[in-house]
Sequence to fold (221 residues):
Amino acid sequence: MKVTTPIPASKPVRIETAGVSLNGDLTIPEDAQGVIVFVHGSGSSRFSQRNRAVAEMLIHAQLGTLLLDLLTGAEERTDAVTAEFRFDIPLLAERTTGVVEWIAESARTASLPLGLFGASTGAAAALIAAAQRPQWVRAVVSRGGRPDLAEAALESVTAPTLLIVGGRDEPVIELNQRALHRLSGERELHIVPGATHLFEEPGALNDVARLATTWFLDHLA
Fold:
């Protein structure tokens, strides 16, 4: 019978950055080889089942994870009605950069190589943070992301970057293809056959988790 290594308990954290206090769940397995910050977008939160499923596979591969909310509670309530914050890329990027600095300076994580996992508009924020803090961000993975929204920052991203898009998410495929050619460092685009934007099809999210795990393990060493 296969024995599954239990996932260590996550610890709630509060990160003060850019004039706000952000809530997160930090999980650091024993002998962690790195830590991955999840940058949510499009109204998602640290409770996203899709990102938690990916995080679980990363943790089993001895990678720590930080799932966090880039918006405050009041902002989330407003955004649920107006969608005004989820596309405020400068705001999301500023807070993501602050979280990167927190990871780099925290006693629990300072010694661990850092990667960013961005989803939807969060992918743009992750790429901007990678461009602004290249000394700390070692790798980036985008799931169904909008890297094009990082605009001029794309040319400054030197961290190895993997863009994952669903094969049936045609408009986003084109946007990712354009962004791919603007990135400066090692980059790759992987299209998951038959998957739509949210990767809800059987096995699609598992493919995302497998691809992300391999990319981070290869580039955080």
In short: The helical segments are 49-60, 73-82, 89-105, 121-132, 170-182, 204-220.
